[in-house]
Design a protein that fits this description.
Layout: H1 2-23, E1 35-48, E2 56-67, E3 78-93, E4 96-100, E5 110-121, E6 127-139
Length: 152
């Protein structure tokens, strides 16, 4: 009886798990409708808000430390990303997250970014790839102004 029960349980698990494994992760991480999603972790190299307009809040250069499979080629490099105009920017504090703007992010801050990758065929056999950040969380690591102690 125990052997029969074990066989039934294994068969049910196999019938349930094999299709899920073949389907892949939710969202697939691959290209769907012309874009793929990405997540990454890194350190800010520079921020440029002078390129802000209707479609972008600016650009940010991040030294990518880790990320999803879609940004594998960017790891351990300084990569430039477009920050969408409606992107949510959050500063992480000990008390929680505080809404900020891209102009508040400074070089040296640790960041977690999420966004989409868009590929555009240029028509001449080349493809332009654009990384657009929609959600940016950062921890302010820039030192506060330190007042030296008074000399006696």
């Amino acid at each position: 009886m125990k052997k029969l029960l074990l066989v039934v349980v294994v068969a049910v698990l196999a019938l349930t798990l094999v299709p899920l494994a073949l389907a892949g992760a939710p969202g697939g991480g691959g290209w769907k409708h012309g874009h793929a999603k990405f997540n990454l972790v890194g350190k800010v190299v520079s921020v440029d808000t002078s390129t802000a307009g209707e479609t972008a809040a600016g650009t940010i250069v991040i030294h990518v430390k880790a990320g999803t499979k879609t940004v594998r080629g960017l790891r351990r490099t300084d990569a430039s990303f477009t920050v969408a105009a409606g992107a949510k920017v959050w500063m992480l504090t000990d008390d929680g997250a505080v809404a900020k703007t891209l102009g508040d992010v400074a070089a040296g801050d640790k960041v977690k970014a999420r966004g989409v990758i868009t590929k555009v065929d240029n028509g001449d056999g080349t493809t332009t790839v654009t990384y657009t950040i929609n959600n940016l969380k950062y921890r302010d690591l820039t030192p506060d102004e330190v007042v030296p102690p008074a000399q006696p």
